Each structure stands twice: as C-alpha cells, then as structure tokens.
Amino acid sequence: MKRALLIASLLGAATVFGFAPFYLFPLPIFTLAALALLWQDAPHRLAVALLGFCFGLGEFLAGVSWVYVSLHDFGAMPALLATPLTLLFCACLALYPALVGVIYHALGARSTFTTLVALPALWTLAEWLRGTLTGFPWIELGYAQVPASPLAGFVPLLSVHGTTLLTAASAALIVYAINQRTQPSYWLSGAVLLALWLGGWILKSIEWTQPVGKSITVSLIQGNVPQEMKWRNDEIAATLNRYRQLVAMTHADLVVLPETALPLFLQQIPADYLEDLATQARANHGDVLIGMPELDSAHDNADNYYNSVLSFGTSPLQTYRKSHLVPFGEFLPLRPLFGWFLDITQIPLGDFARGTDTPQPLAVAGEQVAVDICYEDAFGNEIIRQLPQATLLVNASNVAWFGHSIAPAQHLQISQARALETGRYMLRATNTGMTAIVGPHGRVEQAAPGFTTAIVTGEVRGYTGATPYVRYGDAPVISFSIVLLLAAFWLALRKNAKIRA
C-alpha cells in the first residue's frame, strides 16, 4: 500500500506539468487515468481516500505551494509558521480528490458505467466545488487544455468546467480501454476518444464572436516595482515617478497600469500628478486605466477602502472596484478567530471592502471594457457578468507576491481561458509579469519578459456577440454533471437491491 500511495503522490505532482508554463496538456489525462486504476485495485475505502489525498497533496504541493512565498518572503511570517500553514492549505485542497475517490469506489469503481459516467462527473463537480467553497479554482483540470489542445475548442461552448468534464472523460475512456482490452468493445473507447478530440478540433474553427469597430492601440505597462519596496514610504515618490515616465512614453488609445500601481489612496495622490497622466492620455486621444486603493469617500468612512481601477483621459472618470477578494490577503474571514493572522504578517491593506456584484463595463477609448483585478479572472462566471456588453477584457494584477514561481504563468493561462470563453481580447497589465495581450482564441500575441520594466504595445479589436458560455454560464455543465452522478447512484442502488434479493 505504501508503494501505491507514493505512486499516487508522484502522479499528482506530475499532473502540474500539464499546466503552464509547461503546457504538456495530455499529461493530466494519463495521470488521472492512472489514479482511477489505483482506486480500482484499492482493497478498501480508506485506502481509496488515502490514494486520492496523496494524489491531491502531490498536485497542490507541486502546483500551488508558492503561497509560501507570499506568507514568508513578503508577508514576513516566520518560516516555522508559514511552512505548516502552506502544508495545511494544500492538504485541505487535497480533500477534494480524496472525496472523489471515496464516492467513485462506493458506486462501484470497476463498473463500466461508473467509470465512464460517474468519474468525469465527480471530478468536475469536485473542481467546481473547490472554486466555489474554497475560493481557489487554481489548476483545474480543464485549464491544462488551454490553448493548444483540441479540447480547447469546447471552452467557448462549455467553459473550463465543461472542458474539465471532457478531460476527465478522456481519462475514463483510457481506463475503460485498459479494463476491456480482451473484449471487442476495446476498440469502441478509442473511436469515442477520437471523435471527442476531433469534435474539439472542428469547434476551434467556429467564430462565436465578431470584431466590431476599428482597431485601437493599447499599451500595457509593467512597472516591475519589487514587492518588498512597493509599500515603503521612502519608495513611493520613486514609484510615482516611474509610472509617470512610463505613461509619458506611450502613444496608445488605451493605456493600462497594474493593480495598485500607485501605492497611495486616490485621495492622497497629488492632483497635479493625476492630471499629468490624464493629459498624456488626452494627448493620445484616449484613456489610461490606473490601479490604486480608494477610500470610501462617498460615505466619509475611513474604515472602508477598495481595490480599484480608475480611468482618466478623454472619457469621464469611471471606477471599477474589486468584488471577489482574496481570503487572508485582501479580507479576513471570521475576524475574531483569525485576527492573529494580520498581527503576524505585513500584508498592507489586508481588509478591503467589496465592490458591487453587478459591475458595468467602463466606456473608455471607444470600447466597453470589462475590468477585473488579480485573481478575479479565475472565476469565469463572474467575468461574464459584464458581457455581452463589454467588447474588451482587462485584467490588472500584481503577482509579485509569488516571486519567481510558476504562479504568474499559471495566472496567464487562466486569462487565456477567459479570452476563449468570451471570444474577446484579454489585456493583462501586471507589476512584474506576465503582462500580455491575449487574443480571442486564447493565444498570447505579445508578452513582456518577467521581472523587467516594459511596455507591451499592440493593436486589438473590440468584439461583439456572445459565446454559448456567455449566454448560459456554468449551469448547463454543472446540471449535466449532477444528472450523470444521480444516474450512477440510481444504477448502484438497483444493483445492490438485486444482490440483496
């Protein structure tokens, strides 16, 4: 059993190579298939749970343990505390594949129907619940297929969740083929798998949205302000001057600065400084979007402040306020229980207020721009709140919190999925990387090297229309997965009733 647990852990760790920055998209299919075979051979339910847990622990320790960097390197949390907290975080995420295994085994892991129907549904629902309940949908299986895999053709139709379902179904078909290798139906699984991937490849040629209006020039600014220097009082003037100089170098219709690019509240920034940026934007005959924290001046409440993006230039002043905040990074859940967390870390502005749940696109540079901030773009159902009205997507981020890890590349892949889901350009302005222009088909058209001061400039088009996902959201895929799971439960109950009879 120890050997099986070690293999499960290694399979989980190997799964990470299916995602950015490695993009070995077939790999997660084979690792999940191998995990399912381990589950089928497990002697009892506890062994199944441990196998799923070890797989998840290997995956998340290899894939997202960069949270340690934000806690220790930049949050000043002692290593003796940051290490077990990182391990605990990954262990909590690993409970989801453990639960999948337990239910899969209970339904009859060696059953053909359970493997082909219940396994993909269970994995999809677990990933969806992880994002919904835990608020952390990182490295969901479907992201690995973006943008190169044929299965990426299903993303505008079924979202990343639907692509997760089809990725898990591909693994299930491999398991079926192995179990049926001495039967004539062995070849059927291969034919279905081929049809599935061929269908995705054909779907890639469909244009779900259409360009509208003339092209515009965009400049995305990567300030490359070191995270450890960003909030120091003696560095604020240098940071403001850096962004003033970078904006002055642009000649674009739309200029975008990163999340909290200006490390002062809007109300603290000198009026002549903002006017300089607005003047440059007007000289470009366009607008500049600037990330900065913003006090709740409307209610004269100094306790409420927002993570905001504001527009300056030819268009009227407009504001987007972040609504999906990062637990323990931007707000503190259950403050009486976790108040100690803020006491031992040096995370600035750790208790933001939430923006509205019904944001509207910003009318800037002749486009309707749907802005999101940092990891908000990990939630496709929230991005589509501003669609189909929005013609462009903009993500302002600061992932300098995670240093030279794979987190920025993973975040870029998430943005690529949002571009695919919506059929629109995604413009990413980040502090240290990955600043990029992502096309409507999810491919990176231009990008700046990480940890450099850079301006990414290019021409983009606004897009109109709605992909099926924009129209219907997550409900069809989640509902279908639930129906599949209920069918597996019903069949298992019938089988047990016959055995008792």
Feature tags:
single chain, Nitrilase/N-carbamoyl-D-aminoacid amidohydrolase, six-stranded mixed β-sheet, alpha/beta, 501 residues
Could you characterize what this model shows?
With 501 residues, the protein is an alpha/beta fold. The chain folds into 2 domains: 2-206 and 474-500, no CATH class; 210-466, Nitrilase/N-carbamoyl-D-aminoacid amidohydrolase (4-Layer Sandwich). Helices cover 48% and strands 16% of the residues. It has 16 helices and 12 strands. The strands form 2 sheets. Strands 5-4-3-2-1-12 form a 6-stranded mixed β-sheet. It has a 6-stranded mixed β-sheet with strand order 6-7-8-9-10-11, with helices on one face. Helix 2 packs antiparallel against helix 3 (45-64) and helix 3 (45-64) packs across helix 5 (79-106). The two termini are 35 Å apart. The model has no long low-confidence stretch (mean pLDDT 92).
